[in-house]
Amino acid sequence: MKLQTLSAFFLVAPSFAFHSSPYVKTSNSIIPRATPLFATFENHENVSNRRQVLANVIAGITLLSANAVPAFAGQPRPEYLTEPTEEFKESERQRDEFRRKQLVIKKNFNTVLDRLTFESKSEQELIADLKELRSLVIATEGLPLGIKRDELIKIIRAKKAKGFWPTNVEIAYQDLTREISYQQSPNREKDLANPL
Q: What is the pLDDT of residue 106?
């Protein structure tokens, strides 16, 4: 009986959902609207109230969704490897080797930066340190992992701000920053076939 009430509600509800008045207005008079089918169900003793109907609808949807079979239920579960493959082991070895090389290069950079920052006092020492940094940038084709361009420039500018910074040291510094920019540029490789 509840299912019949529910289906009757969904069939009849759209017919009076947009009408708010129980009367139909014509050009000459107001005529009472015909009693909708839903109004006759309200007087029947077996008809549920709105809360019960809503509870039944939610319970039905929950029951249907619980019994639904997922689309991937017929497919086998993916198997996971218990041991790493040879290709994975080789790539891990290459990564470790790359990291070790980068740590050595970073150590060389830090040594020169420390010497530039704390030990170099004369113009020749400053120029030599900046040229050595430039040669390290060229050798590594950029900066090593863990050293960023902005950090390197901040360290050098802090040294510059301390006072002694002649013109030739500034030229070596500008050469270093240009070389870093060139090495980190994605457009380094020239197309020899293209004359432009």
A: 93
